[in-house]
Amino acid sequence: MEKKVRRIYPVSDPGTTYFLQIAWQKDLCTGFDVTLTDGQSAWIERVSKEDISKEAADIEMEQEKYTEELRKVLLSEGGLTDTYSFDISKEGINEDFLHFSYEKKLKDLAFRLGSLKLQRVSSPAEVISKLISYCLDCIAGLHAKNNHLQRENKILLSDLTDLQGKLQKCVEAKEELETDLYTRFILVLNEKKTKIRNLQKCLKEAEETVVEDTQAR
Amino acid sequence: MEKKVRRIYPVSDPGTTYFLQIAWQKDLCTGFDVTLTDGQSAWIERVSKEDISKEAADIEMEQEKYTEELRKVLLSEGGLTDTYSFDISKEGINEDFLHFSYEKKLKDLAFRLGSLKLQRVSSPAEVISKLISYCLDCIAGLHAKNNHLQRENKILLSDLTDLQGKLQKCVEAKEELETDLYTRFILVLNEKKTKIRNLQKCLKEAEETVVEDTQAR
Amino acid sequence: SPETKQHFACEYDCYGDSYTADVDIAQLKEVFSRMNNLK
């Protein structure tokens, strides 16, 4: 069972805060339960799959698009007040019925997305209590997720720092290796050059001796 | 203003859920406001700094330790039910007063940490409405924080992957450099060795010629 | 013996690399590994 609780401010009574709770299984288009409360009284109504189809047909909107609009108007918190509006009116001696309607605003005109007639519950304390409990459970769940993410974050940062250190060391090691190898190479190479110079000197001396001997002979 | 809302189940009426809201400035020991609601009615009371000091003195507990106990009993959600318990009783025709007490359990005995007499509010809808609004704000804040942490984690993971790639490349580059340098070194060295072999051959020939000439002479 | 010493001095440089025999990578690595305290 999925739930969402949000605040709404009816256009005809913007000073009063109502809490709208929507509960549904899997997908909103299969039907949902609506609960409205002002913190004192509560009204509920069940919206069936057929009701949704009928409403979509009435406003000549494709079923999928209509469900998407329902999600936006009923399940988003606050952010789309420029696009959607709500209204509430009560009926009956004890306000036994509550008319709840929601509209979408498009530039200068607005069209009704849906309207429901909710019935007052006899024990609002239970409904309100469950609503608050649901909120507290959400908070606890989010705190736990938050803590988990922070721990993950900390580990990732630590891994990143370690890896940066390793990369730095690798770069330094590569530079050291190059210097080291060249240093060793020039020592060995210069040994060969010294040998070549010595051999060249000996050869020159030997060749001079040959020339002298030839001349002496 | 800091707030905390939690559920409590009075020992004398464990089937009823009460919601306890504590509101305080900076530190609990400077005083706090208590609100209790069952989803229908609400009772409130202000606990002053002096009340806290008096209570600590009454139970012969050091002020700081007492404030710490208050934090644990009033501000923790659920986790410490084995250690702390609450009780509620009402008084008056219209349940105008609510007695709220909280105890700490130690093995086989329990001692009272505090007790308050709360007064019923005339407009509970407003109090309950504010409490629910506070919860929804908490939820929104935590969602935002979680989204932020998830984005951060995603970036960190991406950075980590990049860095792992760079490290791998650095290791490979180091190995390639080593192979490359050795390949070049042996080419140059072997050139010098060829030169040395040739010089040694020439020198030997020249020395043989000198010997032959000497013998001939 | 002094003779052996003399022979090796003619055949190998002070790092143990032959003056005349061509070297391969493995051999050069071995020569380099024996070179300590380059500073």
3D structure, described in words:
The complex is a heterotrimer, with 2 copies of chain A (217 residues) and 1 copy of chain C (39 residues). By secondary structure, chain A is of the alpha+beta class. Chain A contains 3 helices and 7 strands. Chain A has helices spanning 49-58, 63-75, 124-216, and strands spanning 2-8, 18-24, 31-37, 42-48, 84-91, 97-106, 109-120. Chain A has a 7-stranded antiparallel beta sheet, with helices on both faces. The radius of gyration of chain A is 42 Å and the shape is rod-shaped. In chain A, 20% of the residues are buried. The model of chain A has no long low-confidence stretch (mean pLDDT 93). Chain C is mostly helical and 39 residues long. Chain C is 49% helix and 0% strand. Chain C contains 2 helices and no strands. Chain C has helices spanning 2-11, 25-33. The longest helix of chain C has 10 residues, at 2-11. The N and C termini of chain C lie far apart (31 Å). The model of chain C has no long low-confidence stretch (mean pLDDT 89). The chains are: A alpha+beta (217), C mainly alpha (39). Chains A and B meet through strand 1 and helix 3 of A and strand 1 and helix 3 of B.
Residues in helix, % of chain C: 40-55%
Average pLDDT of chain C: 89
Q: Per the principal axes of the C-alpha atoms, what is the gross shape of chain C?
A: flat
Uncertain residue ranges of chain A: none
N→C terminal distance of chain C: 31 Å
For the biggest sheet of chain A, the summary is: 7 strands, antiparallel
Q: Count of helical segments of chain C?
A: 2
User: Biggest interface, which chains?
Assistant: A-B, 67 and 66 residues
What is the ordering of alpha helices and beta strands of chain C? HH
- Indicate the overall shape of chain A: rod-shaped
Cα Rg of chain C: 11 Å
Pattern of helices and strands of chain A = EEEEHHEEEH
Could you give the distance between the termini of chain A?
Answer: 121 Å
Percent of residues of chain A in helical segments? Answer: 40-55%
Low-confidence stretches of chain C: none
Strand content of chain A: 25-35%
Number of strands of chain C: 0
What's the main sheet of chain C like?
none
Could you say which structural class the secondary elements and strand pairing of chain C correspond to?
mainly alpha
The helix/strand class of chain A is: alpha+beta
